[in-house]
Amino acid sequence: MQIENSTTHDIAEIFRLYEIATDFQKTKYSVHWPKFELSLIETEIKENRQWKIIINGQVACIWATTFSDPQIWEEKNLDPAIYIHRIATNPDFRGQNLVGIIIKWAKEYAKANGKRFVRLDTVGENEGLIQHYQKFGFDFLGLYELSNTDQLPAHYHHKPVSLFEMQI
Asked: Under CATH, which number does the domain 2-167 receive?
């Protein structure tokens, strides 16, 4: 197993995994991911913020990171944190604790970059995800109404977000 940055060669697979995740979300939740812009993924790749887990030569999971997330975290964005977005798992690798692997990696990555928190969010009040992230050591900070969503993907518009953080 390896964790490495995604490359432009991974774009088709990234979008395939997003589509699978979105289709799953549609069967379980009222809020699901929109179709993401190619330019967003290209920027993340260029800035080394799009990641992947490789197992036996296959992309098992993807996610994106940033060190700044002001529209979601507002005044808390001033804290030194890494923010994780859009975890999508290849169905062939479900059940292999990949989120736990990402969290372990994120804590080390945060420390190496002088950050004190690992944070993530999910749109809406999804009890299953809340419990899932708490199981990995995240504190659930509650549901928040965002004041400015104009630069965020469509699924953030007019919906509260569940915020999670882990101090390292």
From this structure: 3.40.630.30
